[in-house]
């Protein structure tokens, strides 16, 4: 049992070491080599921070889709709720009548991050009960419609004329979102924010692992396998499906707040339908049925996107070729590794380990 526990924690330890190594590499740049030079220009330090933020979103999505078996095509909208709660109540604090003493306090943005998580969780809990009665494609269409509706509210300033009051800023969004700080210690420049983002990303992975290995996780897997069989065995399917949905959207909201303070601005585009599809692709590429598929899938898709943009333009190909190449690569992944890359790596590792432990039979 202790050996199994050590093996499970080995991945977390390796990730923490990798995070500190990347942070050290970017700060010190030994021999003039940073993360950009080490990855031949595919990854920048900015990209690594984005990987951490999106990892939080995809961990929640993997719990919902990969373990509870519930489809979501509108996850970017919940990501946007967190971002806009943080942006609106900091940038528009004076217009909303929030006292200057409160709005200027260093703890105010942290409180808004928590508020965004609670608002998202409460909203999801209310709309989740009727939506989760749907199954399969119908559930996908419902989450898609919900995501588009929230995106339109962001884009159209909640249907309020900007001349009356600016809430979301419409298509222009909201600039000047303040940086996070702890007391007088500002969590910027980027290397400071990098450690904050990856603290939350590693915490999300640990929480996700603990959830899926708990009684709740076993109930979710039972629902994914067969909802009818799970109900026969006494599993409250409606309760556990709602828990998975609420948990996934709360993680997305937290990531959205981190994104808002990272970009120092928000606009509707990163939270549209295309963004939701990209999150699904990240989840599927890494592997929906594993928590470790989240950071792996996000890293592969973001890295692949940067690589294609750089090299296709270098070869003289137009931007319209990029999604074609991108789609072909994803099709190959889905054909040859339908469970995702993380599961495939785990299978290869277990097979090799089994072969090494099997004693040879002498003739």
Give me the secondary-structure topology:
Blueprint: H1 2-28, H2 35-38, H3 45-67, H4 75-91, H5 100-103, H6 108-131, H7 136-155, E1 174-175, E2 181-182, E3 185-186, H8 190-212, H9 215-225, H10 227-232, H11 237-263, E4 265-266, H12 273-286, H13 293-314, H14 321-336, H15 341-357
Antiparallel strand pairs: 1-4, 2-3
Helix pairs in contact: 1-8, 3-8, 3-11, 3-12, 3-13, 4-6, 4-7, 4-11, 6-11, 9-11, 12-13, 13-14
Structural overview:
- The protein has 363 residues and is an all-alpha fold.
- The protein has helices spanning 2-28, 35-38, 45-67, 75-91, 100-103, 108-131, 136-155, 190-212, 215-225, 227-232, 237-263, 273-286, 293-314, 321-336, 341-357; strands at residues 174-175, 181-182, 185-186, 265-266.
- It has one domain (48-349).
- It is built from 15 helices and four strands.
- The strands form two sheets. It has a two-stranded antiparallel ribbon. It has a two-stranded antiparallel sheet with strand order 2-3.
- The two termini are 35 Å apart.
- The model has no long low-confidence stretch (mean pLDDT 89).
Structure summary:
Helix content is 70%, strand content 2%.
Q: How would you describe the oligomerization state of the chains in this entry?
A: single chain
Q: How many separate domains make up the residues?
A: 1
Low-confidence segments: none
Helix content: over 70%
Keywords:
mainly alpha; two-stranded antiparallel sheet; globular; single chain; two-stranded antiparallel ribbon; 15 helices; 4 strands; 363 residues; 2% strand
